[in-house]
Amino acid sequence: MLRRLRANGEENIMGLELKNLYDDFRDGKTIKAYAKIIAEDAKKLKKPINIMEVCGGHTHTIMKFGLPQLLPDNVNFIHGPGCPVCIMPKERIDHAYVLSMQPNVILVTLGDMIKVPGSNGSLQDARAKGADVRFVYSPMECIKIASENTDKKVIFFAIGFETTTPMTAVLVEQVIKQGIPNIFFHINHVTVPEVMVELIDSRDVHVDSYNNEIDAFLGPSHVSVISGSKIYDKFPKDYGRPVVVTGFEPVDAMQGISMIVKQFVEERCEMEIQYKRVVNHDGNLKAQALIEKYFEKMSLFRWRGLGNVPDSGLKLREAYRDYDAEVLYKDVLPIAEIEDHKLCICGDILRGMAKPQECTIFGTACKPTTPIGSCMVSSEGACAAYYKYGNLI
């Protein structure tokens, strides 16, 4: 797959370009070949099937490469809640805003958070009012910021699924080992399997999961690199939903869909891995151990549009409460739950009960430059994908 260049009779990869690594996974002929296989197998289906891609990265691949156009009418996509910014409830976004406005505080977070609207505004608005809000690619950048601002409290507002949680854990470990006194954490990490259960077997009275139309899941790839495919074993066994852990490129997605269709045709219900070049059953055990060392489950975490999902959120363990910004600033952080704009249907979209174009403000009042809902503001959001690639539908 890697196209090596030869110099002086020896192989080398000095001339390797990034696109050389993914070209084969975007090959049009291969994509069309899988489309043909899926179409033939789909003729044997006893009923239409609805596949939920849990991850927002899959949603963007599906829309960007026009995959719905390549599939037969009896194979459909349902877009899931796999965007860590999209699922963040407004009250937690308000936490970030309030913390950023505290005296002698530098709020640090990942870039997707900048435009997410809370009830008081976004972090971009807080910046405009004088707050010191900084966006980083790596949590480890907090150490440099803290060393350069010893008179300030540096609060890392941590977001993300299992994919980014180890990075936060590494930062916690380094803060403790180096004895850095001015770095604190607001933890908003969430886990995937619990919300998948919620979508098909909700324990929240406000969520009608029993009318869901989810027949199978495309399992997220990067999450699975950390956690391993073992976290999905229960879905075929206990819930009758096959799961295929799938990569993000279009050839990956089409192969994953083909594997799901074949399971239905062959009347199987299993957990399979399409993304074998990176994912295994056990996952990254070192990363898992680091997460276990510093974090524990919250009894409930409120997901936007889904309500309170048991055991789906993480928090710092009690031994590390001195680093917890939610403890340090508990007297100023809001606790009331805040609902979305009455015209926004992000909640329904995140539950797979609606498509973005069904929203009355999609592409008009709500668009990337003026987002009202979280699904539009995030680069991984379903509304952002439909807005950017909707002409491919």
Query: What integer value in Å does the Rg equal?
Result: 22 Å
- Residue-averaged pLDDT: 90
Largest β sheet strand count, sense and barrel closure: 5 strands, parallel
Output the CATH homologous superfamily of the domain at 90-189 and 284-328: HypD, alpha/beta domain 2
CATH architecture of the domain at 90-189 and 284-328: 3-Layer(aba) Sandwich
Question: In the CATH scheme, what's the topology name of the domain at 90-189 and 284-328?
Answer: Rossmann fold
Total number of strands:
15
**What is the CATH level 1 assignment of the domain at 90-189 and 284-328?**
Alpha Beta
Give the distance, in angstroms, between the N- and C-terminal Cα atoms.
31 Å
Distinct helical segment count:
17
Report strand %.
Answer: 15-25%
Structural class: alpha/beta
In spatial order, strands of the major sheet run 4-3-9-10-11
> Segments where pLDDT lies below 50 for 5+ residues?
1-13
